[in-house]
Automatic annotation (TrEMBL):
Gene source species: Drosophila navojoa (Fruit fly)
Ion transport among keywords: no
A Pfam entry, by short name: SET
Top-level taxon: Eukaryota
The protein's name: SET domain-containing protein
Amino acid sequence: MAQLEQQLEQHVPQMTINASTQELAALIDAHLGALRAPAPAWRVADSPISGRGVFAVRNIEKGEELFREHTLLVGPTAHRGRNLRTCIHCYHQPPGESEESALCSAGCGLPVCPDCAPSERHAVECQLFRKWQPKHLDIIEPRALRILSVVRCFFLDERQRQLLYAMQANTDRYYMREVQRAAECFEHFPRDPDMLDYFYRTVCAFNTNAFESRCHIDGQEVVTRALFPLAGLLNHQCTPNAAHHFEDGETIVVTATERIPAGAEITMSYTKLLWSTLARKIFLGMTKHFMCQCPRCQDPT
């Protein structure tokens, strides 16, 4: 483990690739696929708030759906206190009561339902985790479960991988701990430098851009960690003009909360709207690495 930690120190995640705004917009269009409207009400452009943003190309009315988007990468949050007995693919509850009864019978250490266990989607992840040899096959290990969303970067195609690398990825040495904690759960966790670099880049992208997607399945709230590249471009304002909700844990829907004139930037809030100015500033500084300078934050009242 000491050797792995040394490698982690040596291989700092790469910064974002130097994709132009036009190249990023083209990658997002390809990512949206059939969900892209023939004449979208928005466009990707450089933002005076931060980096790139999303702007209205026409007047948008309050309540109008701006876009919907499928996730690029998604996986369990595996937070403490959450029910870990949730299938990693369909999010339904596997039969049984114990954690062990929810685990894949092939020995990958992942919770999976009987319907998803024989699927091709599970087969590739199962094979990879079995190759790494989980140390515990009688419990659901949160640290291994959380790394699953990062592992899924291996199965992106070339265009999807380019989009992942074009996303903003704030580096933080603490993010390396996520990979270290996952490594402790396996006998043969990968140590190849290129693979570790890929892990780090994805962890940074997740921690910079991920949404906690919430939906209800089998009468329980299911929370996933998901990357939505277009929604992730919406810059923060403490008085935003758009809001979002989730469908099925893997789709985000963004809607205008007020009339947005043509040319205006479309924004959302990264914080709770009723938080105090101090609470918002602390949260944004610690989790998003910026200090908000919006009119609400600058208002002394």
